[in-house]
Amino acid sequence: MKKVLINVVHPKLEAESRVNKTLIDFVQNESEITVNNLYSKYPDFKIDVEAEQKLLLENDIIIFQFPMYWLSSPSLLKEYFDVVFTYNFAFGENYKLENKTFVVTTSVGSGTAQYSKTGSNKFTVEEILNSFEATANYVKMNYKKPFIVYESFVISDEKLQESAKDYLTYIKELSK
Q: Which residue ranges form the domains of the chain, and what is each CATH number?
């Protein structure tokens, strides 16, 4: 299995997250997976750029896991990209992340019907995540299909456990 870094970006993972916490709890004991809880490490948004860049270089598959907030990610992830994906590290004369795999894992409150051209959001989740795909392309990473958990507010325990198992299977497939 390739080395996997999961940058989990949830401001209240332990206190309020049912879905993202379950996903992390299910996969974190795999030997090749490193879970990097950004809000736990950087509640003040003062990111240790050198340490984060080192983690990126040490791993083959980089997953950004977060709950979708206002059709985007929590604000710390934007800060992370702004300060960690620097010139001559992620782009410019050096593309140090080139050919690494870039994945988004996200949870959304609504179902697939709402995330469609005819639904209340007018876009699919994949379309909403286009800026992440564009970022991956810009830094020459390989963007993969996102892992999405729908209906996070009402998902049953059984469906959530099934999603957690599917998440591990998804990661293992990427690692082949």
A: 4-174 (3.40.50.360)
